[in-house]
């Protein structure tokens, strides 16, 4: 088996996926059967600089290089061969945000990530003008806000892109973007698969009214769908990935995609009436639509799958970070008592305890808002835990409350999709760190959205594996084969899943918690104002 894997690696019958997530940059190498062969990663964190969330480009490349180096070491350790080439390559990253470059390729202002919520005026105006929801984090909202704020750099913009688009551009020289990632920059015309021409024209008019002359269509990346070629790794690009010079240029790349699109691939959720929930620093649900929505909703983004099919996205800026912080505190306490526990064991104990907590959170309330949350109209966040004097204050209920809180904002958006629009789901897949402890957050999510929720090892390596699969699809698919068929018949055939059905008592308990959660939002707003 090892010899076969070694031959596959040296023979280039592999695909490499690199994803730049919010807390980790990860590289995954997959073999001819799409199974992971080796993994490398690098942890990183965003910085809050001048009241904006950002990452430096130096940190981008340091992290990418360390991930690829760790991957190469893992290949050598596991399979005894050197990683000198791969059959295909793909890059994914956090969607949205704002990376603006001048004609010389110089960054004009620090990268503004999806986490920033200073674009309220812009998002509101564009949503009204376009007749579709333009969220705070979309690239066009960042651009228009910069125009409204009179920022000097706007007149020097030659090219706008996302983080995945930037890395791909540096590796290949191609200013191109996968359609899923592009749909988080600017609205897509479902009929043409390109940016909406009427909305592009209207944006140019709005910019002119604000005193800026530009043609937005000239600034945005070219769009490519899954399976289309998107350039090759150049010599300069190979040096960026691997300064040691081992990695050879000439590797074909698939279109770069956002983390939402790779999450859909990693969970086989690209067909209508399928969906997935990804829970990490942020939490979001992607539901592939079988029909258009009846109207625009502030809580829902309209994006696409990597193949261009319409998707309703419920995106919440705040996910599992606050739960992680509490687990960290309990870990510190355990170590102070002299117990050298591994934090993963603390997660297991605390999450499992939540199953025995009061079904409605026992009168306790938590808000996981480290940053602003557009769905609940908060430009900034303050993590908050509140209880009344008669609350059931025990460890199990405390943990259940915080796990419920990590899903609560998502539930608000899903109510719009499921109850207001009547969108139906055949299956929902959950992945991300929140779901690692078996049967806990999965069960609570099933209660929150009153829908069966599946988990499985298929998404264990997450979006980095998903973009590796997209790279393989671009080079291995049969003529005319679409992405959904490729995933069903080639990648996920025989995959084992565990499905949690919503339990009536859990559903009722989550409903009761949500009534208290919504009623308590003024407390969170007061915390933002006063603290």
TrEMBL record:
GO MF entries: kinase activity
SUPFAM superfamilies: Actin-like ATPase domain
Carbohydrate kinase FGGY N-terminal domain segment(s): 15-241
Any matching Pfam family: FGGY_C
GO annotation (BP), single: D-xylose metabolic process
Keywords annotated in UniProt: Carbohydrate metabolism, Kinase, Transferase, Xylose metabolism
UniProt-listed CDD domains: ASKHA_NBD_FGGY_BaXK-like (cd07809)
InterPro entries per the UniProt record, alphabetical: ATPase_NBD, FGGY_C, FGGY_Carb_Kinase, FGGY_N
Residue span, Carbohydrate kinase FGGY C-terminal domain: 276-474
PANTHER family: SUGAR KINASE (PTHR43095), XYLULOSE KINASE (PTHR43095:SF5)
Entry similarity comment: Belongs to the FGGY kinase family.
UniProt-recorded name of the protein: Sugar (Pentulose or hexulose) kinase
Naturally occurring in which organism (per UniProt): Geodermatophilus siccatus
